[in-house]
Amino acid sequence: MQGMYKTSPWGDRQSQGMTTTDAAAVRFDTKIAVLLRDDLETWQRLNVTAFLVSGLGTDLPEVIGEPYADADGTPYLPMFRQPVLVFEGSKETLKAAHTRALTRALPRAVFTTDLFTTGNDRDNRAAVRAVRSDELDLAGLAVYGPRNAVDKVLKGARMHP
């Protein structure tokens, strides 16, 4: 069951954007999705995904769950409170998804092919700033928002294998 968990460590489901379909299952009202260009190398797909989702967590505190701890009490950093779904599509699919995300004003992060040649955050930001929105050579896009809105943004994309 996609987007469903048998137990929830996140406390009050309604305040976390979740609905309970029965006593044991949780269905999120929101979706975190990454769309990758289908011609990327494996290492690029992993790198782009990591960079993109890091942007969502910094600006949207509601997507982050509580910190973790193991049975010994060793603390671990909090992570997203819900699954991250990864999709792939052609360069054209990615461009269309980007346009739809902008039109719907959904929170988003972009990774352009120029970022594969830079080596730091300052140069990454400069590379994106140098190109008009409709001319970005996108390698990936992350979006967050209501499930149905994200689904519309991702129209034409397929789940990553």
Secondary structure layout plus pairing:
Layout: E1 4-5, E2 18-20, E3 26-28, E4 30-37, H1 42-59, E5 68-69, E6 75-76, E7 84-89, H2 91-103, E8 108-112, H3 121-129, E9 138-146, H4 147-153, E10 158-159
Parallel strand pairs: 4-7
Antiparallel strand pairs: 1-3, 2-3, 4-9, 5-6, 7-10, 8-9
Keywords:
161 residues, alpha+beta, five-stranded mixed sheet, three-stranded antiparallel sheet, 4 helices, 29% helix, globular, disordered N terminus
Query: Ends: how far apart?
Result: 17 Å
Biggest sheet strand line-up? 8-9-4-7-10
Return the string of H and E elements. EEEEHEEEHEHEHE
Helix content: 25-40%
Overall spatial form: globular
Mean pLDDT: 87
Work out the number of β strands. Answer: 10
Total of helices = 4
Rg calc: 17 Å
Q: Note poorly predicted spans.
A: 1-16
Bin the strand percentage. 25-35%
How many strands, which pairing sense, and closed or not: the largest β-sheet? 5 strands, mixed
Output the structural class: alpha+beta
